[in-house]
From TrEMBL:
UniProt superkingdom: Bacteria
InterPro entries, A to Z: Calycin, Nb(III)_bact/plant, Nitrobindin, THAP4-like_heme-bd
Motif GXWXGXG, chain ranges: 21-27
Protein name listed in UniProt: Peroxynitrite isomerase
Cofactor note: Binds 1 heme b group per subunit, that coordinates a highly solvent-exposed Fe(III) atom.
Source organism (scientific name): Arthrobacter pullicola
Family: Belongs to the nitrobindin family.
Keyword Hydrolase carried by entry: no
Keywords for the protein's UniProt record, in alphabetical order: Heme, Iron, Isomerase, Metal-binding
Domain comment quoted from the record: Forms a 10-stranded antiparallel beta-barrel structure able to accommodate a hydrophobic ligand in its interior. In fact, this fold hosts the heme group, which is located in a wide surface cleft.
Metabolic or biological pathway, per its Swiss-Prot or TrEMBL entry: Nitrogen metabolism
HAMAP family per UniProt: nitrobindin (MF_01297)
Domain THAP4-like heme-binding: 13-197
Amino acid sequence: MPMEIPTDLTPGLVPLSWLLGVWEGSGRLGEGEAGSEHFKQQVTFTQNGLPYLQYTAESWLTDEDGTVLRPLAVETGFWALDRPLNDADGGPGLIPADIVPALRSADEVEALRNADGGFDITATIVHPGGIAELYYGQIKGPQIQLTTDLVMRGVNSKEYTAATRIYGLVNGDLYWRWDVAAEGKALEAHASAILKKQS
């Protein structure tokens, strides 16, 4: 399936460009075995000209026929290449960036390739209930592997200590799996899904 790279995309987002759009599909909680609960999900990756993707995922618990029973979860965040920030990057807060993009050419992006031939990336994902995750990982073609470096929890948040996520583009569909260490348990399968691109 050919990929189109938007002409207004800052060069630093080209390795992540295959994620852009709205994805919808269904999945299973846990290992996905018989008796595992079903869910429906919509994931959106957008960009606004800055060097990161905005990410939102909404999920609904369903019966096995796909009928929505109730809301399940929402998360939102930002995904980007992991690189030293410079004056062309905004922040912290509302400190404006220089007008030029931080990475101006394909050559500057290519210089960030790691020893495995991919790119180091970071993803910050925030959940209701006072939980935020900081992931580091790698994108190599249409494959992503992420591992939490930090999970921040509020004083009244549920116990949650670590996670890994993997994403892959397979025949035009987005496959993902999320493993979680929470509530006193070691890292184990939490959820997985297959999503189709809507736009």
